[in-house]
Amino acid sequence: MKTVIAEIAVAAPPTTNKHLIRWVEKMAELTQPDRIHWVDGSQAEYDFLCDQLVKAGTFTKLNEKLWPGCFLARSSPNDVARVEDRTFICSLSKDTAGPTNNWEDPYVMRKKLKQLFRGSMRGRTMYVLPYSMGPIGGPMSQIGVQLTDSAYAVVNMRIMARIGSAVFAEIDKDEKRVVPCMHTVGAPLAPGEQDVSWPCNDEKYIVHFPETREIWSYGSGYGGNALLGKKCFALRIASNIARDEGWMAEHMLIVGVESPKRPDGTTEKTYVAAAFPSACGKTNFAMMIPPAGFEGWKVWTVGDDIAWIKPDETGQLRAINPEAGFFGVAPGTSAKTNPNAMATLAKNTIFTNVALTPEGGVWWEGMTDAPPAELIDWRGNKWTPAIAKETGGTAAHPNGRFTAPARQCPTIDPDWENPNGVPISAFIFGGRRPTTMPLVYQAFNWSAGVYIGATMGSETTAATTGAVGKVRRDPMAMLPFCGYHMGDYFRHWLKMQRNLSATPRVFHVNWFRKGADGKFLWPGYGENMRVLKWIVDRVRGRALGKETPIGWTPHFEDINWKGLDFSRETFDVLQTVDREQWKQEVMGHEELFLLLHDHLPPEMIYERELLICRL
Q1: Tens digit of each residue's pLDDT (9 = 90 or more) over 354-372
Q2: pTM, entire model
Q3: Between the chain's N and C termini, which has fewer beta carbons within 10 Å?
Q4: Which SS3 state, helix, strand or coil, does residue 581 take?
Q5: pLDDT tens-digit profile of 158-186?
Q6: Between helices 486-496 and 446-454, what is the axis angle to 10°?
Q7: What is d(CA 204, CA 115) in angstroms, rounded to the nearest whole number?
Q8: Are 320 and 421 in contact, with CB atoms under 8 Å apart?
Q9: What helix, strand, coil percent values describe the chain, rounded to 5?
Q10: Which residues are annotated as catalytic?
């Protein structure tokens, strides 16, 4: 044992936790790195690692005047997104994982992983990265330690989580369970072998062991596959912890809506959490700018992707954003669609798989109306509008990303790092639906609200594989992220309400309904504030609603139209609840329920029966 460690250049560990030290030794013995580096999270360390990444050809330093403190990374073309088909939930029984997760026997999988990880870090440095999801030491926060041979993962994690010495100090208190996370790009180097700019392996595994709270990721250096605090910990493992401890780990943004000042100088602030599947405008909604007619109103950003929600001692649900940064999709982000995001990523940001401009800046599709005359595309090749026309190649990868510190967001909520969270008054669900779903409606009660979340979905577009126009159900936007059986997850939602003194109201929105001409009926973006205000007014008991078979909907007069010329006729089309279309919709719900039948809570079946009766 000692001989193996003796060959590895290792500094004295900055922790007294013998379990952690022993685990690091054991994993070093397995993966055989050349060096072990204990991450302290300092600016000097970050600068040093970024410098190393520039030398390795992984990073390009951007023009310091235009993009201060920013870098561009280009990944390997076969390592550009989360790999859902290589993501596993290895619970002790297959039944616990449920039919929507990939399951493998944990004993078989451990054996396979041990073989893959054996010697996988040869020629590389193993970074010991301690991180806190949520403010360090907060009552709702959780701790993980990631062992990785990717400096790219370390510098991105420094933006996305709270890392370093302060977390080691927290681990040394020995009060909280630590989630062990193993990560390797799976590209060991032979002595004298020249490294590539983006090491990765064609074979990939992203594996979760819910009972032992472990994460093992092999072969990928990209995003959620390598930044294990993100989807792996904050959703898949955390959803298991949350179910066991009586809280919720959700794929939700959190925003605060603040009214203009009243005569006495006070304002009213209401927090809501919202779950939308990808490509439904989550980041835009989280950083919304109120439109004309909403002077004095403010929308504050608490989080754009993940919410941990827990009842406090009075029975009020409170939420934190466990992340410290935004890992946002760049294409489509612009000064028009999301000025706050553009301000957030203007400095100290890592861009991945976007295009490089001749003056040392970045560009992606949708950033400006007209593309630059010439660029280096995300693959490192020359790109011009003419080449694009000929080959159909995009300058940036459609999943190109920015990793930016949340504190740089102009609308970041003053309470975003409050360790006790912010009070949640409403949940909003929504997907991309050209038909059937009205612009907004409110569930009759909690159980009906859970049904709405459980059956939400988006119609497939050309971007996703499969038949165009088929509704892909994505319950609570958690389909790829729930770490256990989806039926049990619905039951957990239903149970949560029993201990609450104030039950959040539940709403469904749809910004994507189309008219007979195939054009969107609703302008979206900042105008969504009009719908959000009705939601806040409903929560506060101020606004009226009209009863329909599916829930409460606003009258035309209930919406503030100041500053927008929007006709009553268009609004009526937007809010139409077509009974025939809805009968088809309910038939679609059955497909999902059949899949989950043996774990489906009876409340879901009752809600469906009630909906059929009302229709």
Answers
A1: 999 999 999 999 999 999 9
A2: 0.96
A3: N
A4: helix
A5: 999 999 999 999 999 999 999 999 999 99
A6: 160
A7: 13
A8: yes
A9: 30, 20, 45
A10: 280
